[in-house]
Amino acid sequence: MSAAAGRRPAARAAAGGRGGRRGAAFLVITGLSGSGKSAAVKALEDQGAYCVDNLPVALLPRMLELARGSRIDLGLVVLGMDIRERRIVREFPRVFRAARARGIPIRLLFFEASENVLVRRYSETRRVHPLGGGVTLLEAIRSERTELEPLRALADEVIDTSQMRVRDLRERMLGIARERRAPRELAVTVLSFGFKYGVPADADLVFDVRFLANPFFEEGLRHLSGLDDPVREFVLALPEARAFLGALQSFLAFLVPLYRADGRAYLTIAFGCTGGRHRSPVIAHEAADALARQGFRAAVRNRDIQGE
User: Fold this and answer.
1) Is the pLDDT score of 7 beyond 50?
2) 8 A C-beta contact, residue 30 and residue 110
3) CB atoms within 10 A of CB 75
4) Of 96, 108, 235, 301, which alpha carbon lies 20 to 30 A from 172's?
């Protein structure tokens, strides 16, 4: 059995509503093979951007027109383009400049890395370089760098990933996504469970509330659940429960925004008692209400509330 938690914040007006739609902004990601372009596209997709990888240059003008004229607010449209499309160097600069001349908001990011780093990455992944036919890996890397120099000169920003960890690259892309739109809303699930049935595998944070007095042993409460007022009133009247909830509210107010700032899409906070029927549902719903007051949307799921 599940229940929605408390009041929900008012829904934000859709950006695509009449008078509010800004139209799509475009970000083209290109650069050297192995420099992290695909990881960057994926990170932006996780933040709600509409992404197309390996788009042929011939389709770029049509893509710009379709996205700009769409009734749907696409927000940020990310287009991955690279040397796999051999006409990119010859044709992209003309299309790019024409789009800007028409006032279309479009940016170009160029990704690169040092030769040693690119060689190491290809050696670790055992992938074949797009220009690798009949030449050594190092020759292919140098040839691509030379061929793509006109695009590098055209770029709004050059990003060297030689010293970047995956986390660093992801944070950089999160910053770019924020320039256009707010990050995708963090989906919080507050879960109650019983330890006798096992700890939830998908829980990010687990709190053990078995230190609270158990309503199971109180006359008239055993066959009720934490969704019933008598059980809720019994648990919340405990001094330990009030102290715990006060500390919990401060803790969540500190921690949950950090998860959101990190770009997390999902967060599951679990509260467990012995059987998952009495104490943990009460605390879970109180935690969800606290999150709602802090501006987060939290759904409650009571996994084991039907247990005896």
Assistant:
1) no
2) yes
3) 20
4) 96
pTM for this structure? Answer: 0.57
Between CA 137 and CA 144, with CA 143 as vertex, the angle to 5 degrees is: 90
Q: Would you say 34 and 131 are in contact if contact means Cβ atoms under 8 Å apart?
A: no
Question: Residue 10, class by beta-carbon neighbours within 10 Å (0-12 exposed, 13-18 middle, 19+ buried)?
Answer: exposed
User: What CA–CA distance (Å, rounded) separates 77 from 62?
Assistant: 13
CB 232 within 8 A of CB 226: yes
Alpha-carbon distances of 24 from 67, 68, 71, rounded to whole Å: 6, 6, 10
Q: What is the mean pLDDT of residues 104-129?
A: 90
The percent of residues in the chain predicted with pLDDT above 90, rounded, is 52
Mean confidence (pLDDT) of the chain: 85
pLDDT the model gives residue 64: 87
Are residues 28 and 81 in contact, defined by beta-carbon separation less than 8 angstroms?
yes
* Region of residue 296 (left: phi > 0; alpha: psi -120 to 50; beta: else): beta
Residue 94: CB partners within 8 Å, gap ≥ 6? none
Asked whether the predicted pLDDT for residue 227 surpasses 50, the reply is yes
Q: Give the pair of three-digit tokens for residue 233.
A: 């009133």
Helix (H) or strand (E) holding 117: helix 115-125
pLDDT band per the 50, 70, 90 thresholds, residue 123: confident
Nearest-angstrom CA–CA distance, 81 and 28: 7
Query: What SS3 class is residue 104?
Result: coil
| CB 263, CB 244: distance < 8 Å | no
* Selection from 12, 2, 1, 9 nearest residue 289 by Cα: 9
Whether the CB-CB separation of 225 and 278 falls below 8 Å is answered with yes
Count other Cβ atoms within 10 Å, centred on residue 166.
11
Q: 19-28, 62-71, 165-174, 182-191: which range is least confident on average?
A: 19-28
Unique residue bearing structure tokens 């935690």: 287
